[in-house]
Specification:
Radius of gyration: 15 Å
Shape: globular
Distance between the termini: 33 Å
Order of helices and strands: HEHEHEEEHEH
Largest sheet: 4 strands, parallel
Strand order of the largest sheet: 4-6-3-5
Strand content: 15-25%
Number of helices: 5
Number of strands: 6
Length: 149
């Protein structure tokens, strides 16, 4: 969704990310709507498209990067940490935000060093189990930016 993507780019710039990367499967076209929603942040950020996202993440991990997936899933071996309990980052980190329909794929979750979730209020209706992707990205980026402060 172009609106989510614009929002993610804007949050990434605001919270100090170095770049934004999309996967080949991302249907969102980078264009005028994304630029408008990002309030021009798109023009200030490096934006990359990975043709093979799992391979790209694997290569990044081999180079010392960490992979953090925003998810509601407990699948995989990486610890599931609440956004407000994130430990201080010890290495450059790639934050993976899945799509709103299916989330982060199992293939990508296998590569994750940490899975992060945003806990909801206990009394929220059960059919509201997650946030919009753009909002979730901003919440997690804020948690990363301000962890330990």
């Amino acid at each position: 969704d172009q609106r989510n993507f614009g929002s993610i780019i804007r949050s990434a710039l605001f919270f100090g990310a170095d770049a934004v990367m999309t996967s080949r499967g991302c249907a969102c076209k980078v264009g005028p709507l994304v630029s408008r929603i990002s309030v021009g942040a798109m023009e200030c950020m490096d934006i990359y498209r990975a043709n093979n996202y799992p391979r790209t993440l694997g290569m990044a991990r081999e180079s010392g990067w960490k992979v953090m997936c925003a998810t509601t899933s407990t699948w995989g071996t990486a610890p599931l940490v609440a956004a407000d309990d994130l430990p201080r980052l010890s290495a450059p980190t790639i934050l993976v935000i899945g799509n709103e329909e299916t989330g982060v794929s199992d293939e990508i979750l296998k590569l994750s060093d940490t899975n992060v979730h945003i806990p909801a209020r206990a009394d929220i209706p059960s059919h509201i189990d997650s946030l919009n992707a753009g909002v979730a990205a901003g919440v997690v980026m804020a948690a990363i930016r301000f962890e330990g402060e």
